[in-house]
Amino acid sequence: GEIGFVNIIQKMLDTKESFNKEKFLSEPIPNCISRNIDGKIQYAFANEQIKKLDEIPSPYLEGKMDEFFDGKLQPVIQTTRGCPFACTFCVEGMSYYTKIYRNKQEKTQSELHYIGSKMQEVKNKGGRNDLWLVDSNFGMYNEDLETCKSIAECQTKYHWPEYLQCDTGKNNKPRVLDAARLVKGAMRLSGSVQTLDSGVLNNIKRSNISGDDLMQLAVEAAEIDADSRSEIILALPGESLKSHFQTIKTVADSGFNHVNTYQLMMLPGTEIDSPETREKYGMETRFRILPRCFGYFEVLGKQVIAAEIEEVCISTNTLSFEDYVKCRKMHLLIHIYHNDGLFGTALEFIKFLKLSPYRWLKLLFEEKMTGGVNELFEKYEQNTRQELWLKREELIQNIQNPGIVDSYISGELGYNLLFVHKAIAMSRFVPELKKFAKLTIEKLLSENHKDTQENMDFLNDVLNYDASCISNIFKNLDKTPQATIHYDIQKFIIQKNIPLSKLRLENPTTIDFLLDNEQLDIIKRSLDLYTSSDMGISRILTKVFVKKILRTGTLDKNSLQKTEEITNSADWPYL
Question: Which residues are registered as beta bridge partners of 504?
């Protein structure tokens, strides 16, 4: 892209004294597609990427990005280009991207420190404090460790970044973990699998991390308190409801604190988008507007309404549309009950009893929903069906109709369904979520003959604790949730393997659930940036390490300080 753009500008400069359109378009411009004066398409492309990325001047170091450090926008850098893998659903699966090229470390280090100095000013004014590193496999190469050392220097000097959004490499997990340790757990660790079905993996030309390696990555990520994530794509060629659920089972039981679920996008130019692949696997697709990719724009003095449209696969010859909808239901259950530690203590209790977190998710999926939970999921299913358009042309026309783009801008339409409904759940349905969790975990205990009175009593405390942790985070921050407990839940969270009988308190105790100053700072800055609307909260949920802003149950301020001392000590979490 850079080469083509430079070539256009250079040709314009070369002909500016005697510009002639016919001459200008008489032959292809390298790395560009154009039409000649007769309208015939012409092009000429190099067969390789830019080999020395540091040949591209840094817009940060040249000061060209200064105006964008406004506290709302997120700084973005790239240290490495290319991907050695050949996944058919990904643009970088094409041979053009196979070779890896990178910026020199000196350039990356200089950019990081420059951005850090600017972001420190931004944070002090109440702005955001993160970084998006857009490499395809960050942490997989030795050079990435040097980048992490530079990021660690910035964390010490500028207290930035609090959170590093990136996609980590699926090979060389020990090095990825070393990278995460260097940045003090601020890096999102991804053990992306997309699917674990061998037949589907063969169909998409992907090799994968093993189930054992997945579990080890999740365990070690927990030890450094890192945000660990795995990704799964729905409706890949050859995938069925059964195989999709089996992948979810392996990943959920591995211990990742976040399971990202996606629909299969038919990206133009990828192998999976080809007519041959579509026909072979009976792929049916629909169209929808990408979240937040729409608006009014001024182009050459005229107002233009534009929206970015994506095509997603909604059924194949092995996955019906109704099974697609069922999978989407499971995805929302994962986001509410598994991801981000919203019911983290309940999950730890399930693991403590050596039961399967996935089995709990399956019971949630199978159980009849009532009340607020039923209302939430019925609305979600309705929106899942209604967001899909059969024809791209009809969707393009619809966005041009009066008032439609305003509905997208206001959030009435075009939002990320999973995160908006998760935001609604956290804001309005916590008591109902807790009740539904209690019903299904009791069934889990019963079917495994672990429904003793002690376990049931402890479960009550655990769910009261979790519900209080997720209450009043984005709204009514000044209202402190309380819960009366009979067991030392905090001790269970820290040490986990203590017999429940030793956690029993002498007397029932009422505890407050507080937010410390750091949590309040992150939450208030995020609310100022995104607002407390359902759509605003949904965006916050995608941009912060949610587990770190959940409330902490404490008997008093001294107890809270003691807990912080333990979790911040060099021995944590090996106590």
Answer: 487
Residue 540 to residue 549: CA distance in whole angstroms = 11
Q: Strand, helix or coil at 572?
A: coil
Measured at the CA of 164, the angle between CA 195 and CA 109, to 5 degrees, comes to 120
H/E stretch holding 551:
none
Q: Considering Cα of 210, then 214, then 215, then 216, what sign does the dihedral take? A: positive
List, edge to edge, every strand of the sheet that includes 504-514: 482-487, 504-514, 552-554
pLDDT tens string 520-559:
999 999 999 889 988 889 989 988 888 889 999 986 544 4
131: phi then psi, degrees, rounded to nearest 5: -145, 140
Q: What is the C-alpha separation between 459 and 360, in angstroms, rounded?
A: 14
Tens-digit pLDDT profile for residues 475-530: 899 999 999 999 999 999 988 789 999 999 999 999 999 999 999 999 999 999 88
Do 333 and 256 touch, CB atoms closer than 8 A?
no
Give the SS3 label for residue 143.
helix
pTM, entire model? 0.83
Tell me the C-alpha distance between 91 and 19, whole Å. 37
Q: Tell me the C-alpha distance between 295 and 436, whole Å.
A: 39
By the 8 A CB rule, do 388 and 437 touch? no
